[in-house]
Amino acid sequence: MSSEPVKIDKSSFSNMHRPRSAMTHSEVEMASRSRRQLQSMGTHGDPIEKLRLLCLSRGAKGILTLGRMFRRMDDDGNRNLSLEEFTKGLIETGMDINEEEARQIFHFFDSNDDGNINIDEFLIHIRPPMSEFRKGVIEDCFRKLDKNGDGQLTTDDLRNVYNVKANPKYIAGEEDEETILKRFLANFEDEKTRDGKVTKEEFLNYYAGISASIDNDCYFDLMLRHAYKL
After folding, report:
1. Which of 71, 73, 131, 167 is least surrounded, with the fewest CB atoms within 10 Å of its CB?
2. Of residues 66, 22, 30, the one with CA closest to residue 202
3. Is 15 exposed, middle or buried (0-12, 13-18, 19+ CB in 10 A)?
4. Pairing relation of β-strands 152-153 and 198-199?
């Protein structure tokens, strides 16, 4: 864990349980840094690293969006994608990856040359590296939210954890409990693939993006523990 002094931004805590669409300051910095790295990479960089940076340039939702798009295309539920499906998914999410780069990425992950890649293995590799310590904190948060233990979060799970009565929109009578809970779940979903369910993998993908924007382990740990009252 990092030993650097931890500077606490209390606004991060007060807003964590409040559904938002705007990126945090640290996400904005990460996105800007990723775009600069893309520019310096030019046209001859590693296509896998390029795709990772393209995702991070969109903030915490970049890899989450890509993962949900691929799962939507997995019609038979076998968690595998063909080269055609993989390339189509990249195009539909607006990733600036050409056909040759897509082919190179695909063949890297198609280790047994059967013409398919596993979605989960691909996403684990493409998302920013995280220490086991950070993964453990994220998994603790997910377990607390997943009250029925079925591996996915819904508004029914959140009702047992997230008290909306302190939410300003609920107090003002602007939104009811269901609307607020749905908006909270929307933090982990993409508009094109929104279904009101968030899997553990999607939860991890989202916080992998958040993690990449925060250098200090202690701050990351404290932020999540405060947000989910661990």
Report:
1. 131
2. 66
3. middle
4. antiparallel
pLDDT digits (tens, 9 = 90+) for 97-141: 999 999 999 999 998 889 999 888 888 888 888 899 999 999 999
Angle CA 45–57–50, to nearest 5: 15
Calculate helix-pair angle for 119-126, 47-56, nearest 10 degrees: 80
pTM of the complete model: 0.67
DSSP state, 98? -
- For residues 213 and 95, give the distance between their C-alpha atoms in angstroms, rounded to a whole number: 20
Distance in angstroms (rounded) separating the CA atoms of residues 229 and 141: 9
pLDDT for 165-224, tens place per residue? 888 888 889 999 999 888 888 878 766 667 888 989 889 888 888 888 888 889 889 988
DSSP 8-state assignment for residue 68: H
- Reported as a single tens digit per residue, the pLDDT across 145-177 is 998 899 999 999 988 777 788 888 888 899 999
Residue 16 has pLDDT above 80, yes or no: no
Which residues lie below 8 Å from residue 187, measured CB to CB, with a gap of 6+? 19, 20, 206
Distance in angstroms (rounded) separating the CA atoms of residues 202 and 136: 15
Q: What amino acid is encoded at 109 in this protein?
A: F
Maximum Cα interatomic distance, the chain, rounded to a whole number of Å: 58
CA 150 distance to own-chain centroid: 20
